[in-house]
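Hey, resending since the last one bounced:
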Amino acid sequence: MASSNHVTPTNCSWWPISAMDEDGKITDGEESEEPTAESKPFSKDRLVLYHWTQSFTSQKVRLVINEKGLACEERDVSLPLQEHKEPWFMRLNLGEEVPVFIHGDAIVSDYNQIIEHLEKNFVGDTVAQLIPDADSPLHDRVQQYRQLLDGLPMDAYTHGCILHPELTTDSMIPKYATAEIRRHLANAASELMKLDHEEPQLTEPYLSKQKKLMAKILDHDNVNYLKKILGELAMVLDQVEAELEKRKLEYQGQKCELWLCGPGFTLADICLGALLHRLKFLGLSKKYWEDGSRPNLQSFFVRVQKRYAFRKVLGDVHTTLLSAVLPNAFRMVKKKPPSFFGASFLMGSLGGMGYFAYWFLKKKYM
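The structure tokens again:
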């Protein structure tokens, strides 16, 4: 169980069963040519990441892992399927959100602690260093932009743009998502209370989640608050645009690829690239850089999308919706096989999503 500093030693003789359901269990009548996840021997070098594909902090951790070229097992904890509210997960990290990182006998359940752990423990000539040494002149600059970009209220941008699509342009989120998220948020509090009664030993984490949830609902559905933080975001992006312009002048005439803090790709670039990818998905790219107001930002986004780690973790921004919806649909069936009516409804829903995706992409590109 995670401690107050978010780093917990453990012998890892146990693994949350629910996290292994996807590929760790074999149903009756099936045979497996490969060992299951539960049968893999424990190793002090084993890396496991519990995450959700569309979680913003999870995306940044996965980008760091892939930029460093590390072999890491990934266990998807689906937020739409409420897996982060299940007792097995809340025992794993005392009610904190994804991601959760396991390295040998240590559990790290805080985003910033995970980044620090990766940088401290994985170094060498063949492993990318994403935070310069403390005595490097670039160290403070990277940390400055890391803190600036990580401090942005991404949850508020995401929920706010879904709840108030009138503030976006060419958002890649379907219109029905507005009603769906309102329904989900309305039910979430009662669902947490039900779990609290079922698992009284977890009362404190559950109630903590409930309070955070209600605060988010009040803030993220406030259009004036959303306009305010979007205005503050514009000022941050102005600062980033100016910093990118400084790099052009600083290295003028030199043949090198320039990033936010210098010629080397750093954690600051991961934070910025992930931010721009999310803003594009939300329908804010035309407002902030595709209108020509921030050409350096636009150039940065084009270049960062070409990196292998970004293509692997984030993929094409236009298929983000499908990557979030379809896997959850099939996992829901695997967890609880539907009745004939349920199966028919599911297949109809998948067909509808496929048609929606075709129509949406056709409108965008054809």
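The first strand starts at residue 7 and ends at 9.

Sorry for the duplicate.
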